[in-house]
Amino acid sequence: MQRPSFSIYDASAGSGKTYALVKEYLKIILVAKKNDAYRNILAITFTNKAVHEMKSRIVGSLSEFAKDEPSSKAVDLMQDLAVDTALSVIQIKTKSQQIIKHIIHNYAAFDISTIDKFTHKVIRAFAHDLGLPMTFEVTLDTENLLVEAVDAIIAQAGEDETLTKLLIDFTMEKTDDDKSWDISREILDTGRLVLNENNRNEITHFHDKSIADFVAIKAKLNEACKVLEKESVAFAEEALLLIEKNGIDSKSFSGAYFPKHLISIQEGKFNPKNKTYHEYDDIKINKTAKDRAIIENIIPELLQLVATIYKTFEKRDFYKAFLKNITPLSLLNTVSNELAKIQSEQNVLSISEFNAIIHREIQNQPAPFIYERLGERYRHFFIDEFQDTSEMQWQNLIPLIDNATSSEIDGEKGTLMIVGDPKQSIYRWRGGKAEQFIDLSKDQNPFNNPEKVLKHLDKNYRSYSQVIEFNNDFFKMLSNEFEHLDYKDLYANHSHQKLNDKKGGYVNISFIPKVEKTDVNPESLGEEEALDKTELYVLATLNTIQKVIREGFEYKDIVILTRKRSQGIAIATYLTEQQIPLLSSETLMIQNATEVRLIIHLLKYLKNSSDLESKANFLQYLAQNSQDKLPVHDFIAKGMSLFQETDFENWLMSFDVSLSFQNIRKKSLYEAVETIVAKFLSPALSRGKGDEAVNGVDKLGYMTGGNYSHLLIEKAKEKTKEPTSAEKILWMELKSKSLEEYKFRQQHLIDDFIVDFVCLSKKLIVEVDGDYHFSDEQIDLDENRTRTLKILGYKVIRFTNEQVIKSISEVLKEIKKELVSQEVFQDSISPVMAPFPSGRAGVGNAYVQYFLDIVLERDIRNQAGISDFLNFWDKNAEKFSIPSPEGTNAVRIMTIHKSKGLEFPVVIFPFAEEDYNRKPKDKLWLNAEEQDFGLPKVLIDNSSAVEGFGEEAAGVYNQKKQEELLDNINVLYVALTRAEEQLYVISNMNLSRKGEVPTNNMCTFFINYLESKNVFKADQIEYEFGKETKLSTNKKHVDTSKRIPLVAEILNPKNIKIAQREALMWGTHQQEAIEYGNIIHEILSFVKTKNDVDLAITKSIEDGLITFAQKEIVFNTIQEIVNHRELEICFAEGNEVWNEQTIIQKQGKTIKPDRMVLTKNNEVFLLDYKTGTHNSKYQLQLENYQSAIELMGYKVVKKALIYIGKEIDVVNL
């Protein structure tokens, strides 16, 4: 069966496009006479992951076909191929065996690649013709090239007189406009114009323009603006004179508005937006005007004058808009030349130049000549994700494809298969335009052979029926948002998909509760938690995850999609705190890894030994990871006091840290980093202090003989002694809700030691040391004990009594950090080990491995020293992250763009309220009168003011708006079509005070959809479609990947909020009583039973809530509450207690009762603390709490309000 020369597959989401591509590819190689037909096929896609998937599917299919017992899926595909090719299943099997053997031995000729890789291959073949060195390297880092170019241009200030004057003038213009004097950002934007192929055609008009030419054009524009303003004034005066000559009283015009309008123009006060007089009836005449007939007679002439004025202003405003951009535009050629110079000096070529080079230099070469250079001759082309192909990339491929499709070899023509979906075109900013696919799908055909077949893959094989039906209805409704007919048709007639056999599914649209900004006392708001918008989104996301897990899904079934990376980081940080396993390439930043930061701190110290911050950070790492002789702060303080480097090195030797900073400085960059890794991050170091620590049991002799028996006797005594105050405080915290899942044990026997506290599941031991632990003898004993416990697989961390009492929060933070670290260690199947170039074993840490790769590349390519590398790292650190491993049972977080082409059982889409009409950074190119200024195109800001520049400009502006709307709806389409079984959209109503739906916001789409289904209510925040029951079966999966811990977002000091409490220092007795009551309220949140009062008071002193002098009065007040005859039962032991626990109600509102006590009989005691006078609203609030709790299945048997003041007043309800 002859394949069509040119076939276009319009493949909506989930419609099996990869299956179609693989099937068509297999048909070609199976029917070919030779076994190496794959050599003549070029398949192009856009990501390495897509390349891998396509290669795997093709090779995997051939491998299955070749088996004696292929899988059922392979059998189905073989039967389909047998029908299409007229081959028997046996023939397909035999041919597959031959082809797969050939591919294995000639894999390099199996040409499936990204379009950038293919373009690179073409440029390499023509490097000599293009004047490129054969050894040039490709750089993806165009931004850094631009920064270097801009820095070089600014550095020329003072040398080049013309350039200097331009830069100074530009700086003055910015300061005159009350903007930053820093002009580098605008020049960078100009550079991005040069590198963005969307601007290539326009920029060609400026190639022959010098800075002097632009200066002259600017002067002409300024002069033209003045002339136009004078003309406008003259036309206004002419109109006023016409009124005056005809003896018309200005009061004869309604409100005298029309004469005032002319006067404002005459006085130069006219606002161009006030163009209100266009038609005859726009000029209003008073009913009592005696000169009505005269006015009516001259209205046509007046309107003509006003129209001329408006046209003049349009031109003036157009010129002014161009003037705002002409200075950075003057630097186009300067930036372009500097970029070329830098690339030549560094022997690199920016990937953004690829398409332009081919378009300019190679495209017009005869196809046979290009093939000859490539060493290949392609007969069949496959282009995947065509909607992402830029116009220039497509134009560059056309000559090769046209040659193949219009010629025959052995009676067979070449073919082209394009697969894409314009609804998933989301890369316009890099040249990918949906319009290109739309045009090809209609009448456009760039090839000499007119044969073209369009196929629609309109059946969704991915999703369950409810998800498909929702998307069908939703996006058909959104087609009405478009004015552009092609865009409207795309969603009205090409978004509907047929159902598959998977019935059911679930769609949930919810809105976060409205965030009210108020200065009212929180007491009056029922003390409901005031969360900001981001917190509400992350909380809603967590609740959705927990709900989905309860339904039977696994974490790996869930993906969270966000539009912005910052939103993903906010969610990841919160979910990590909640112990939700996560995978996210956006958040696995190398720069945040502790080990990498250690290396950077040491490099900074090596660069400058006076860098005290880096030295302190280095010491902190050592204190926490490589020594246990001194408390952390003492260790750091001692190290910081040693200013002579030799003294510092000698002191480190006492902790078995042997290194010479001076020797490291003499090494190459890579060798220096390798030395740091070997010294501080080697596997041996992580287990102890070298081989002696691992094998030192017999050498130290404490497993036999006196030391062992001495330790046993000492610990036997310790077992029977009363716990210290520090141990009591820590034990209370270890039992608290924040750590209860880890289940610590106190005074527990491990091997031959009794440890203070241990979490057996995580193998973490916490020791609290008294003063006697600082004796020389005890230090040796503790070191030996720690080594033994490490050999047994335990991590030991130690704190002093003083640290626990004075800094409990820091102690807990350290314990939590170690618990997470131990959790990651236990989850790892095997360490990541890789040989160093020098042959030594590498560190078992993926972050360090990736970092070493970066260092090595930088060292080889740039011969970089430490200083150069640190500069590079400061600018680029955020770009490097570790790819997330596949198959791990963890929730994935990714941007919508990264999710393209993927599918997940459950999709959660929070922050669904994007402003799709926000002011874009893009500029607009408009036609100009070349004869006036020598420029056929001008660059202006994209703003609504463009509509006032004339009909043509308004058309360009409105087209741009429609494109932006299409791009935003396309992004939404990608997000909502990733779901297989369940889809959760979390948005925000953003209703005005009058209940009006916002315009230009994504949330409006969801509200409109709900209204179209007649279900929307302003007070309802959750809507369900389908049943939330899990229908799919869990696939058994063996996780063999190493788990890499999520590094949470680094705390920005600017984001630290310091709350100041002026406790007991108010000016009036009433204020003092209220504040005192609030303090008691806060301390009671630490109290679960009456036995916790002492520790709660200690904690409040440590936290600065009260002073030591206030301890007694506060203690007495709390004792009065917990021992009150009406309340004693609420503070008894044996119950489950929730203090200050937030409850989210079904309507989305949150409540936070002060104290809930759950008895063993599932009965609840409900308490709320109040200050000030009695108020009936508090009773209503408590009743609302009761209703919410009883809806959860509990019975409230007691509820009371406790008024805290000079006396305690209990009101039972």
From TrEMBL:
Its EC number is 5.6.2.4. InterPro entries: DNA_helicase_UvrD-like_C, DNA_helicase_UvrD/REP, DUF559, Endonuclease_DUF559_bact, P-loop_NTPase, Restrct_endonuc-II-like, UvrD-like_ATP-bd. Residues 1-464 form the UvrD-like helicase ATP-binding domain. It is an enzyme of class 5 (isomerase). It catalyses: Couples ATP hydrolysis with the unwinding of duplex DNA by translocating in the 3'-5' direction; ATP + H2O = ADP + phosphate + H(+). Gene3D superfamilies: P-loop containing nucleotide triphosphate hydrolases (3.40.50.300), VSR Endonuclease (3.40.960.10). The keyword Metal-binding does not apply. The keyword Nucleotide-binding applies. One of its GO terms (cellular component) is cytosol. Pfam families: DUF559 (PF04480), UvrD-helicase (PF00580). ATP binds at A11, S12, A13, G14, S15, G16, K17, T18. Transmembrane segments: none annotated. GO terms for molecular function: 3'-5' DNA helicase activity; ATP binding; DNA binding; hydrolase activity. Residues 498-901 form the UvrD-like helicase C-terminal domain. One of its GO terms (biological process) is recombinational repair. Keywords: ATP-binding, Helicase, Hydrolase, Isomerase, Nucleotide-binding. SUPFAM superfamilies: P-loop containing nucleoside triphosphate hydrolases (SSF52540), Restriction endonuclease-like (SSF52980). This is DNA 3'-5' helicase.
